[in-house]
Amino acid sequence: MRTHTKAPSNAPPSRPAHSEVSSSGREPAAIRHSLSRITIGDVGSGVARPPAFSTSAPIQLRRKKKKFRGTKMSLGEFHAHVDREAEIDELHPEVAATIRNANNILRDGVLTRSDLAKKGVKFTGSVDKGESFQNDVSVNLLRTTDEQDADEVAEDSVTAADRGSLSVALERPNDEELMADFAKPPLTAEEEEQLQGVPEGMRAGLRRALLSNTLPQPNANATAELSRRAQRSVLAITTPSRLSGGRSATRREQIGDFKKKPLESRSEERQLRGSIRPGSLHSLVVPESIRDHAHLLHNPHKVPIRFVGNKSTDVHFKPGDGQRNIPVTIDAPDFGSAVSDALKDNPRLLTHVAR
């Protein structure tokens, strides 16, 4: 017959054979708490209750990674973000705006207007392509057949009227105030000579007709403003093969066309259904002016970044919807060289300018 010996009521509970003792000679808090719950000698039985859990295996306490409320960032990531933003705030406003412009793409990719609105990201609209393209991204589709015409295709994609990356970077929804710094140029010597050959009573009407056919030209203030707009823009580059079709049948069909369908010209504006993820980007081209602050570029998806200097560039400025494009010469980032280099390795590219 098995017998049980009742321990004295004032005796401390015996330590289980497999319990671990810390270097200080004391049990871990979790074990001490469990042992304290053991009752010695149930009434009438004299049998000690077993511990609430087995101590034969190592105890592992898992700590859940905290997320900052309202974001997908951990608390550490949030603090790093706050410190980065504080340092950006100390920079020149134009440099700060360019860095934030780049960081938006490096973090989220190229977003549609509807996705930008969902994330609360401010964006600058253009003179057209308004509400009807809320779920699309405007891109330039480029193709080249050999390295010799890569420079020409790249230049066209950057400077062409209405769709060139730098031309689009200059657009704003309303530029009436800026147009006050544009003026009609005087008539040329040849045109003045033509006026002298008509009766004096017809000269005023002919002068107005000649001036109506000329485009206004920017003064120094307008040129500086247009250069400023270009210099705070960044250019995202991708290839059709990098894009994912996603759930949209329209998008899958578009990507198939981008890969195979012949283009009517060497670069064309297209609308891509849905946003472009940062992991799908070939590279991001940014102005040289922010190189000294490259540590403030937050690049979680390791998108290749290329810095380019400024150069004098002939582009087209469209002051409003339905108005004529005005040829202007500005100091702008050399996006063309970056696009040309990318074309030499990828016969088809998609580019998008963010301003």
Q: Can you characterise this structure?
A:
By secondary structure, this protein is an alpha+beta fold. It has helices at residues 29-35, 75-89, 93-108, 113-119, 150-159, 165-169, 176-179, 189-196, 200-212, 220-231, 249-260, 335-345, and strands spanning 136-143, 182-183, 217-218, 234-238, 267-273, 281-287, 305-308, 310-317, 326-333, 348-354. A hairpin with an 8-residue loop joins strand 8 and strand 9 (326-333). The radius of gyration is 34 Å and the shape is globular. 25% of the residues are buried. The model is unreliable at 1-8, 14-27, 29-47 and 63-70 (pLDDT under 50).
Looking at this protein, list some descriptive labels.
34% helix, alpha+beta, disordered N terminus, single chain, 6-stranded mixed sheet, two-stranded antiparallel ribbon, 12 helices, globular, 355 residues, 16% strand
Approximate shape: globular
Q: What proportion strand?
A: 15-25%
The overall average pLDDT, rounded, is: 81
Q: How far do the termini sit from each other?
A: 90 Å
Q: Extract low-pLDDT stretches.
A: 1-8, 14-27, 29-47, 63-70
Main β-sheet description: 6 strands, mixed
Structural class: alpha+beta
Strand order of the largest sheet: 5-1-10-4-6-7
Described by its quaternary structure, the protein is single chain
The secondary-structure element order is HHHHEHHHEHHEHEHEEEEEHE
Total beta strand runs: 10
Q: What is the number of helices?
A: 12
Cα-atom Rg, whole angstroms?
34 Å
- Helicity, as a percent range: 25-40%
Explain briefly what this protein structure is.
This protein has helices spanning 29-35, 75-89, 93-108, 113-119, 150-159, 165-169, 176-179, 189-196, 200-212, 220-231, 249-260, 335-345; strands at residues 136-143, 182-183, 217-218, 234-238, 267-273, 281-287, 305-308, 310-317, 326-333, 348-354.
